Amino acid sequence: MTREFYKILEISENATQEEIKKAYRKLALKWHPDKNPNNREEAEEKFKEINEVYGVLGNETSRKMYDEWGGNSYSGSRNYDFWEEFEKKLRKWEEEAEVKTKEKLWQLDAEFLDREKTISEIEDESEKGRKVYIYSECPSKLWEPYITWQEKIREMPITIVKGKKERSDELKQFKEEMIAVIRKIRKEMEEEKEKKKQEKQQKEAKNQAEEQAKKERENSSINRAITTAIQDIEKVMSEKEIKIEELGEYSNYKEQINSLTRVWKIHSLREEIIDSICELAKKNNQNISEFTSKNKQEAKGEEGQISGKSDDNQKPNYNKLTREELIKTINQKDLENNSLKEIIQALERKIEELEEEIRELKAEPQTSQIQQEIKKRENYLQEARSSLEKINALNNGNPTSDTGNNKSNNNFLTSLVIGGGILAVVGLTVAALAIKKNKKRRT
Predict the structure, then answer these.
(1) Which of 55, 166, 337, 355 is 20 to 30 A from 417 in CA distance terms?
(2) C-alpha to C-alpha distances, 342 to 233, 388, 390, nearest whole angstrom
(3) Residues 288-299 pLDDT 10s
């Protein structure tokens, strides 16, 4: 007899898989041959039928197939029409599944290739000409929307139609956008590079100009220092009546000075040579003989007084007077304004030289020797400025607080030589001016 599967298991067509399982167990237990010894043959047939029906309905896939064409009959044996239809249907499903699987695999493969080709083409574009860094380190703000561009390409939904085209429109559009941005960034980088190049060239040109100007200044300063040093030495030699042959190791002083490339070294050598000339003059009693000669001339009235005024318009040589002689001369008659101006000008010149030497020394590598030279000149500079203030104050009738102390004035710096030894008499000038001012106040 023919019976429907759901009726055989005594369940509805909407029964769940759990309800089918319970119904099967209940009927299998009821019709088990061992439970029906008096009706064993019918029980065996019924038990087999229940198992075969459960084999179909107990599996969701076969149950679904049965539901689709559930009008087929059941013969009560394993060779009924359902199983033949089931196998046919199953083969058809397998074939369809295989086709679908192949199509799906092709789709996945095509999408994978399209995504990887797109990434490769974008990378190739970034390498053309000036490289554009298309990863997180790209500095351009234009790249901010594309920092995660690889993830976007791999996750973007795309469509590829087999047999028509193997590249998706979605990736094509995205690639074109990125390539356009890369080219803009490259142009931006080229402009920035050109800007930096121009800035570098301008900076180099500026540095070269500054270096050239510096060299010119240095050369100018050095040439000026050399010329001045030679003139100072020759002036002192003339005043002290020293011949070049008497200078000994300094007889080639011009060559020695011309070989130097630093202002402070030129000035130092000049001071050494002038010191040497003064020592030679002292040994030769030049100061005493000059003073005696001047006194004789004053007594005879032949060439004017030693006060510094001369009918022949000859200037007195204050550099050759001793301390007592200079004070006596100033007390006898007013010091010539021009001579005092010369002393002040020479002192101002020394201050300028010291300032220039200190600047030059500070530009040198700071060795212990250079630092000592700087300190020495800073001390000299301080003393020179202080002395200039004292002379100006005394000359203007405004003595400084220590002008009444002759002993303090007499201790004025005498170790420097400026323009023919002018600092050698600055202390004497200060002392003499102080004495003269004090005498005027007493009278």
Answers:
(1) 337
(2) 17, 12, 16
(3) 555 565 555 555
